[in-house]
Amino acid sequence: MARKQDRPAVPLDDVSKAIIEQLQQDGRRSYAAIGKVVGLSEAAVRQRVQRLVEGGVMQVVAVTDPLELGFARQAMVGVKVEGPLEPVADALSALDEVDYVVITAGSFDLLVEVVCESDDHLLDLLSHRVRSIEGVVATETFMYLSLRKQTYSWGVR
Known about the structure:
alpha+beta, 4-stranded antiparallel β-sheet, 5 helices, elongated, transcription regulation, PF0864-like_C, Tscrpt_reg_HTH_AsnC-type_CS
């Protein structure tokens, strides 16, 4: 989920946080059911969720298993950059195969998660598209062998 710096801040009161927690438990939970828990009408919950989505605080999506959808290869790619990090992060974010980009401190400047149909697809992505981005000086690829845990239910503060 890309964070937009130019979006106005969405206030997160206790009710908004409770709505987020309800959706983290079950993204298909009805607005009426959420309203009963948080003490709002269905319409009020709908409006709050819309503001949270439009404000970039959250998104409600179907989380899938790429292997079940025909994508045989997932990997995390560590990227070392020369020069400004943001343009490289933006260029990587524009690639269809990329689903996660973070600017980091440590051995790598960026971490990029990719989902590909095959080893050949991954090789093409890395060799011809990622490494050709201006500023990319090195990459290291960590192939996923087995997904042991993936969660989005860490709650709110």
